[in-house]
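BACKBONE GEOMETRY TOKENS
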Amino acid sequence: LVSSWTDAKLASRFIELDDARATPVPDSQWLKDVGLEDSQVAEVIAQCPNLLDREDTEKPKLQWLKVLGVDGSQIVRAIVELATVGLEEHLKPKVKWLKALGMTDSRVATFIVQQPRIMGSSLESDLQSK
């Protein structure tokens, strides 16, 4: 999952290796608080290490996704794309729009994980006209 030596060096700042298992460091506790397991926290940090610096914006987003039905393993798969998507500006309006089209919470959660880049696109210009 780590794409380059630079990414690995960045990730190593946040991960301590103990008995060949990745153990999250204390700064990552908020990721566990939203329901991610230790291995998922380590994977998220490896994919998006600067996420730890954005707890104020990312924690509410991850909590909201969990309520919607997105589980920890799904968050890990979509975190890189979703890390740049604003909750109030993009996610909530798109979920409201998808529900208005008749999608259930479960289907919306699946859609978010399968198509996370769409969640960051413009609702008006990119999605509604198609």
